[in-house]
Each structure stands twice: as structure tokens, then as C-alpha cells.
Write a structure and sequence with these properties.
32% helix; 27% strand; 4-stranded antiparallel sheet; alpha+beta; 5-stranded antiparallel sheet
């Protein structure tokens, strides 16, 4: 399933991922306008190829791309992903309360006979899962704007050299997902899907610390990840959240619950939700 189709919706509305808080207003003025993107230079594109059976990282590649250019990434010999960036253009964004204009770069990703299209804004990380049909590999592609991510934890992860380890990929998506400035770019769904592809985590202790001492939003994300990884305490916290939430937020959490490998705790929670009069 392509994630690009969901990003296309950002042209009209900002999607609030179910189970997460609405996107932060940090960095916008009272009219909703985004700050200037005059410092934007290009996007740094990184890709990790992951073995479907073993869940091991099989290869890594990275390049930079400017608007109106194209690149080809080859993390594993013979496994090629093509990226094409269009010219910068204005798009209208809405958060259901107001509208504003942002500069975006049209972006097309092609692999084999499939392709997907969307847009990248000039201030946020961009994520796409490349699913190989009848192939041994899936891959995770991350694009980071250069010049406009200048502050906060994510800024520290834009510049370093990457060797292509699973831990580097985990850290990159974890930091982006936990930063409220990027709620509409990388969120709960993306973390759960990442750990489905990886099958394990080298940062389990960090997620457990967040479960104990994080903000409510961080605890929810940590619980979802730990549930995906089969952690009993994380599963218990996530199941309680599924039962206690209301409305669309609860529906969103139930969707994640059904994506997670079943356990006695999750199956019992699903049954309670099915028979609940609310």
C-alpha cells in the first residue's frame, strides 16, 4: 500500500494521524503562514533495503536531489529506486481552522513497474515505504530538507554521515515522530510499520524509558511500538488506551491494534471493543 496517496491529501488538508495530537502550530504566525523557506537548498535522500524474511538491513544508499532534478538510488546491486523532483510550487494547506500557502516540491518515486507521486514541503522530513512485489526486499526511503531544519533534535540527525545501520534508521524516524513539529509527516502508523519491517529494535530500552517517563503522546507512541515488538507491559498500556479513548481517536487506535500480531491481551481488548455499547 502506497503512502504517497496519503501525502497528496496534504495539498488540501493536513491529515491528523489517529491516536496522535493535532500538528503543532510552532513555527507559524497567527495567520497560519509558514516561515520563509529561502534557506532551502535541496533534499538529502536516504534509503535502507530490508530483507523480508530475515528483517536484516541488506543495503543502504544516499544522494541529494534539487528541484527539477532526478536521481537513482541502488542500496543493493540491481535493486534500483528512481526519484524525480519537480519545480517548487505553492500549495494550499488547511488544518480545518484556517488555510495558508506553502512551498512544496512535487516528488515521484519509481521502482520496478510501480510508481507513486506526492509532494515534499521544504521544512519537514518525508517518508515512503517501497514495497517490492514478488521481491526479497522492501525498503524505507527518507528525504530530509537541507537548510531549513535548523533547530531541535532532528537537526542533529540531518548532517551526520550514515553507514546504513538499522539503529540509524530507528533513531531518525523515532526523533522525527516524537517531534510535534512533524506530526503530519511521520507518526504512529509509520513507527508501527517500520518495526513490522525491521522485526526487532535496538532501541527497546529507550522506548521503555519513554513508556515510564514520557509525555502522554510519547507514552502512546512507545506503547504502540512495544506492542508491535511483543513487549507485555507496552501491550497492556496500549490496550488500555484503546479502551479509554473516544471517537475518531479510538477508531484510529483500533486500526493499529488490528495491525499488531495477536496476543491474549490484544484479542481480549478487541472483544471488549466489539461488545461495547459505545
Amino acid at each position: 500500500m502506497s503512502r504517497i496517496s496519503q501525502w497528496l491529501a496534504l495539498i488540501v488538508v493536513t491529515v491528523v494521524l489517529a491516536g496522535c495530537e493535532p500538528a503543532s502550530d510552532a513555527g507559524r504566525d497567527q495567520s497560519g503562514a509558514a516561515p520563509s523557506t529561502d534557506q532551502y537548498q535541496r533534499h538529502r535522500v536516504l534509503i535502507w533495503a530490508i530483507d523480508k524474511e530475515s528483517h536484516d538491513i541488506r543495503g543502504f544508499d544516499e544522494k541529494t536531489i534539487q528541484p527539477d532534478r532526478q536521481i537513482e538510488l541502488e542500496p543493493v546491486q540491481g535493486y534500483k529506486v528512481r526519484c524525480e523532483a519537480g519545480p517548487i510550487k505553492k500549495v494550499t494547506i488547511s488544518d480545518f481552522r484556517r488555510e495558508w500557502q506553502e512551498d512544496h516540491v512535487p516528488f515521484k518515486i519509481s521502482h520496478g513497474t510501480g510508481s507513486a507521486e506526492g509532494t515534499m514541503d521544504l521544512r519537514s522530513p518525508f517518508l515512503h515505504m517501497v514495497y517490492g512485489i514478488n521481491e526479497e526486499l522492501d525498503s524505507v526511503l527518507v528525504a530530509l530538507p537541507i537548510g531549513t531544519i535548523e533547530a531541535g533534535p532532528l537537526a542533529k540527525l540531518v548532517a551526520p554521515d550514515y553507514s546504513g545501520t538499522a539503529a540509524e534508521l530507528e533513531d531518525l524516524l523515532r526523533v522525527a515522530a516524537l517531534d510535534p513539529n512533524y506530526d503530519d509527516s511521520i507518526g504512529l502508523y509509520d513507527l508501527v510499520e517500520l518495526y513490522r519491517l525491521l522485526g526487532r529494535s535496538e532501541r527497546t530500552d529507550h522506548w521503555r524509558r519513554l513508556l515510564d517517563r514520557g509525555t502522554p503522546r510519547e507514552r502512546l507512541m512507545a506503547a504502540a511500538v512495544l506492542t508491535r515488538l511483543g513487549d507485555e507491559r507496552g501491550t497492556k498500556v496500549f490496550c488500555v488506551a484503546c479502551l479509554e479513548e473516544k471517537g475518531n481517536r479510538q477508531v484510529g487506535l483500533i486500526e493499529f491494534l488490528c495491525m499488531i500480531p495477536p496476543s491474549e491481551e490484544t484479542l481480549e481488548t478487541i472483544v471488549k471493543l466489539i461488545v461495547s455499547p459505545t
